[in-house]
Amino acid sequence: MILAILVIVFWVLQMRSNIRQPFDLSKYSTDNSSATDSNQVLQASDTDQDGLSDYDEIYVNKTSPYLEDSDSDGLADKQEVDQGSDPNCPQGKDCNAAENLPSVSSTSTLDSLLIPSTDLGLSASSSDAAALQQALAGSIDATTLRQLLIASGVSADTLNQISDEDLMKSYQETLASQAAATSTNTQ
Questions:
Q1: Is residue 176 helix, strand or coil?
Q2: pLDDT for 17-65, tens place per residue?
Q3: Of 39, 38, 63, the residue nearest 50 (C-alpha)
Q4: Helices 142-151 and 164-186, interaxial angle, to 10°?
Q5: With contact defined as beta carbons under 8 Å apart, do 52 and 81 qualify?
Q6: End position of a domain, from candidates 28, 58, 93
Q7: 97, 129, 99: which is closest to 116 by C-alpha?
Q8: Does 26 map to a domain?
Q9: Domain identity same for 89 and 125
């Protein structure tokens, strides 16, 4: 009987401890020593066993400390770091999107910027180029603007719902904001 009572008492104490443990704030320190301790733990551990410490993976290389190959290209993160390649970019792929954009210098001519207008669905004919030059110069009428927009893929039904006044107002606002952005970028 005494043994049964002792078992129940110890069970109650253990249950009480288990219930209070998640709410015990004393184990959460607010000083910087705990941050240093966690950094030391990260520097000493390599969760994914790829040869890079968890600290290096998180703070230096921005890779996953849980995946040996963060970009899933077949090479471990450590191998890619040692080779000088990006462990977040698969081999054979160019992940630097900014480098893929065409550079526009201040000496670029309008024609050189308009020639790749086939991306907009426009043909590079001289009449389209002339209309685009007029549009960029701000000297275009609503009818020509509508034709350019339709040629670039805007639905004619959508354009027909917009009055000439609203279309030209929006066009002028766009030109003004583009001019302001251009002048800000050149300063």
A1: helix
A2: 888 887 776 665 555 556 677 888 888 888 888 899 989 999 999 898 8
A3: 63
A4: 70
A5: yes
A6: 93
A7: 129
A8: no
A9: no
